[in-house]
Amino acid sequence: MKIILTGPTGHIGSNVLKAALAHPDVTSIIAFSRRELPNSPPDPENKLRVVVQTDFTKYSDETLKACAGAEACIWGMGVGNSEKSRSVIVDTTVAAANAFIDGKLAGEGKKLRFVLLSGMFVEKDQEKKLWFMTEGRKIRGEAELELMRLQKEHPDALVVHIARPGVVTATNSLFPALLEPLTRFINIDDLAAKMVDTAINGHTTQLLEQDVLRDDGKRLRKQSLTDAR
Question: What is this structure's pTM?
């Protein structure tokens, strides 16, 4: 399966890339990045192609041609919670989804699965009064709404899934795994495993909240270790 990935140099995106490269069902990865990857993960099967993209609102015919055949996109771009991040979180997401729909990347009659990295406490109601992280939560909520609108307008071309993790901890975090269900913490490897699996197999619901991401991610990683033995 061929997938598209954005944000491969970020904390979450780089781990999603690593998980995708290791997944046996992923045969090709087009990674959009503002710069060359400083430290590319092991890629013995030459699955990865990095496309340096400075403007994420415009996609040339050549770029779309490179993406032809992609059946899923994991959208992992994002910046801090501030008004200036709107162009990154909303505008680029919508522009890419529109370009991929118009380009019919998955093929005639096939749907592109678009997996958006969002966050916990996102608020889609743009008029609601919030008490903390107001702009960031609403900006991400707007991005979710726009993707849902595109799916409704193009039901035969787009399927959207939205991941809403809480606080993402590092691979070797000292935070006890047994306490994760009682908190808003999720291990980066569990999140990456679930996002890649969702890109490949989809999910029964559009929204993937913290508990689903964490529990399914742990199960998938355990199954992967069992299969490797």
Answer: 0.91
